[in-house]
Design brief:
heterodimer; A: alpha/beta; Rossmann fold; seven-stranded parallel beta sheet; three-stranded mixed beta sheet; 41% helix; 17% strand; globular; B: alpha/beta; Dihydrodipicolinate Reductase, domain 2; 2 domains; eight-stranded mixed beta sheet; six-stranded parallel beta sheet; 13 helices
Chain lengths: 337, 367
Amino acid sequence: MRILVTGAGGFLGSVLVRKLLERGQRDIRCLVRSPNRLDQLNSTVALRPDARVEIMTGNLSRSEDAARAVADVDTIFHLASAMGGGAPDMFLNTVVGSRNLLDAVGDRPLRIVLVSSFGVYGVAGLRRGAVVDEHTPLEAHPERRDIYSHTKLRQELLFLEYQNKLGFELVIMRPGVIYGPGMAGHFSARVGLPLFGVFLHLGGGNKLPLTYVENCADAIITAGLASDAAGHVYNVHDDDLPTSRQYLKRYKREVKKIRSVRVPYAALKLVSRLVERYHRYSKGQLPAIFTPYKTASLWAGNRFDNRVLKATGWTQQISTDEGLSRTFTYFRESAKK
Amino acid sequence: MSLKVAVVGCGKIADGHVEEIGKIEGARVVAVCDLEPIMAEQLAVRYGIPAYYSDLARLLEREKPDVVHITTPPQSHVRLGMLAVDAGCHLYMEKPLAPTAADARNLIDYVQSHGRKMTINYWVNFDPVGLALSKLLKEGVLGEPVHVESALGYNLSGAFGDALLRDVKHWVHGLPGKLFQNVLDHILNKVALVLPDETTKTMVAGYRLRPDSNIAARDSLLDELRVLMQGERVSAYCTLSSHTRPVTHSLRVYGTLNTVHVDYNHRTIQMEAAQDLPSAIGRLVPPFQQGWRLLRNGRRNVGQFLHNEYHYFAGMNTLITSFYRSIREDAPLPIPYADILRVSGWMDEIFRQIPQSGDSVLSGRAQ
């Protein structure tokens, strides 16, 4: 089986390639956007001289690169996605790139494992504490959410549309918050946001849908390659989820002291209403970083359920305690460099 | 009359156009267009615009807009502009107007010969401090301009810089002046306020301070530019720098009576203090005068903020508003075509002196 991994140079992608090799896959094409910063991927490949691993540089926003990438592959793990930048950039790199990939695939009978996101769920209307699982409705108002969620939802709808039209096997993985050594920031927005030198702790006692990067890669491979997975959706998060408060407390203890202010949910809702009202009144003089809709989506607090994932045989290999320990050690060591 | 507006090209700057048009009474965006339908769709969905297209001809036929904002890469400006003019539209163009001065002149001639109007997004000159500078010049407060220094920093680590460095097929690499051509308008359009000569003696130095990447197409893109221009009575010195910090955006105009310094990032405009008092007292007082003037700038900015007049694209809003007024009331254009053509001509000469095709360090010569 020849596998294509898009976004193979990224935080999750490089771990996924290693895990594929550990599980005996020996023919992998790694699509990366930039030939720089491939240390981790290169060292992984060097450990498996018996494997055929091709590192291909390309940008899926160009159709010729997409065509090169999908040539002669049987299975695609599609991880490539914009994690930041302006809205047009993110749509270009996530959605247009995906469309080019799908056009290049055409009607070939292969399997695509799409790595989507929890952000596609429409949770603003759920009551606090409601369970988010694979049956939770998709976001109906993506334009009211953050751009990342909007692009991931549009990407997922695009895959569903093409799958319906072309009939390839589609497996959708929706990870929660992927964390681990090498992650870009120290905090998911679900924990809080830094503002003027103070960390606003917004998550309080909410559970964080964390998935340690190695566990996440295991889950994507286990479910992605399962023979009966086609047409299914899997939420990906670990079992022993910490609360936002526990994450922050441990961060302060193990990484560094930061000044934080706890903002209770009721106060945050009030502030969100004021911020949105001011944003409208001033015609956008300050950005609407908080709105009631975004607040309800991110900080109301939900519970999570990964039973569907577990039914594939996936089990959490790295405990959250160990995962956090490794991650915080990485943060600490990185700060010294 | 309410103007129907279309925006063609749904990349980064299109967001700014749509937002500013949305604040203007008597104008509404009726449709957006991009060759890539997903890009057109995302802009329409995010801003609640009723229609989106991937074919401009179709948009023009169905929506019949009064004004088309063209925010595509400059290589397509002339073709799209003429298409829109043929459909009876006025044009609001992103900078740079066209790859060459000849193309720019062709487009302007076409617009004029069809009885339409056009302007270009030189929005910084319409920012509150840009307008204050124009007022000083008009009232003769500076006396006769003698020299002008225009400086602009460019952060190549930002989203746009990163994108074009990473992607050697980015449209910026296809422009004769590459990165410089994409931003030089914002340096030269301020020089055009005080330097009337179409042709000047011009000396150019362009070079790259980034380390080698060993990718020829990427390394041929220069990132530091110095231009010395000498007109009949006024000279100019222009700096475009990708490596100096903080990233600057400023102008200093030296006149026979006064000198003024404009900081576009912080929105301050300040006359240089003269030494009017004798001896040591004369050297002690000016810093306090300067401090006081800065404080007044800050107070004015706070006032604007409190009155919701302190948006990032305040200048664009003013420019679009004046352009639309010019259309509705057949009033003079906010930017004379002569200024646009002068800037285009200067750019041609600058890029002629530093062809960016391979060598990493190049310098120009006097014309």
